[in-house]
Amino acid sequence: MSANGNSGSNEGGEAAPATPPPSFRLDIADRMKRWHGKVAVVTGASGAIGGAIAIELVKAGMIVCALSRRRDKVEKLRASLFDVAGTLNYVECDITVEDDIKYAYGWIENTYGGVDMLVNNAGIITKCLLTEKNNTRDLYKTMETNIVGLCMCTREAVKSMKARDVKGHIINVNSIFGHKVHQAVPGTRPLNGMYPASKYAVTAITECIRQELVYLGTGCKVTSISPGLVEGDILSTNTSKDNEIVNYMPKLKPEDVAEAVLYAITTPENVQIHELIIKPMGEFL
């Protein structure tokens, strides 16, 4: 009998256990290689979640174009990156303005040839009630940013992907409020307003986009990622002053959402993560 048991028979006369086949599951870093040198648009990259996503994509070697109104925030983010494989670009853009979006995508096309990935992360939340007087501008602002802006950015990205026959990926950063309306404590001011309605719309829009991508025969994927409360995001920072309990609620880190994005964009070609809901342990929303 050989010392390692690879030949001969064992003492009980049973066949030696077969050597397990090699695993073909590659880690995230290996699977991200397909995106190396590709172009990703990230809206709202000046925020906590958008910034974390942009950083991970740049580390993976992607050319990230951050669409934002805040150059200082993006420049600060870029200054924090050392010895990374990709690049981070600031592209001034208000996603509620169609001309801004067309200019931004035009600049990307002229500079890099087009877009391979879109992360629709930009979003806002206002504190006004739906029944509050003089709230019209806030209502429009929420819908223009969270819904119309997302759709216009997606339209231009799909146009670029289809023209170049690119099997790209669209990520919609949604919310658990796109699936459930938070229950207000009786006697306290509701904090929902138009925000859940806009995120419910993103849930529906994601499915509509999926159907359109199939119809167009693009081979592109679309994923909705719905996190719970996240440290430093608009939901946590905007509601904590009005509802102290938010300060004590469990929260995800922005990096947790970024890792969910990496998971979604590194699935095999025949696999599409359509909806991914991630919550912090102990969440009670």
TrEMBL record:
InterPro entries: NAD(P)-bd_dom_sf (IPR036291), SDR_fam (IPR002347). GO terms for molecular function: oxidoreductase activity, acting on the CH-OH group of donors, NAD or NADP as acceptor. SUPFAM superfamilies: NAD(P)-binding Rossmann-fold domains. It comes from the Eukaryota. Residues 1-22 are annotated as: Disordered. Residues 1-17 have a biased composition (Low complexity). It holds the Pfam family adh_short. Keywords: Oxidoreductase. Belongs to the short-chain dehydrogenases/reductases (SDR) family. This is Dehydrogenase. It comes from Anopheles maculatus.
